[in-house]
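Minutes, project check-in
Item: structure for the 198-residue chain
Input as provided by the requester:
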Amino acid sequence: MVQGGSNRLKVILAERGMSPADLANKLDLQAQSVRRYVRQGADPNRRLAARMAEVLDCTVEEILAPPSADMNKLPVYGAAQGGLGFDITDVSEPIDMIDCPPQLEDANNAYAVYVAGESMSPRFTTGERLLVHPGRPPLSGDYVVVQFSDKQAKHAAVKQFIETTEKELVCAQLNPAEQVKYPLKIVDSIHKIVGAIF
């Protein structure tokens, strides 16, 4: 999941329930052209920003303002998909914005994710939102969001961190109770869960 950047397009799109592809379609551009402004935070030139502002019904300044102008909001990720072993699926783009809780106000790139699936039940249940602090290193026994990526999207799963070895990330799930191992080469990041809300 790419966080941060120097513009607010990700936030504005989330507020309007639009994807980068939706915006690209309205601008008659390739989806990948718009994704780099959203995911990588690259600033569009003012002419393109003006076209985006017209489509999004906002000002150029609102697009080009750094995300820190919206520090009181937290992006929420995760599209529900059932099945044992899957707690969170697509985390490429936020699907909601919520007020930032006090414990994450000073955290860079903090976010929340919806739980889907039952692999961490009864600790976490479907529909719960987990608060994630990317800056806190996980310790053995901590609950974490493990992020993976492919060429199409970012995906994640909620697990309990055990350890990292030279080649693997070793985690546990609760339902069914078992150890889960991921090759480190497919793991993008491991972020500590610091709370949960409904």
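Outcome recorded: Strands lie at 73-77, 96-99, 111-114, 129-133, 143-149, 154-164, 168-174, 177-183, 187-197.
No further action items on this chain.
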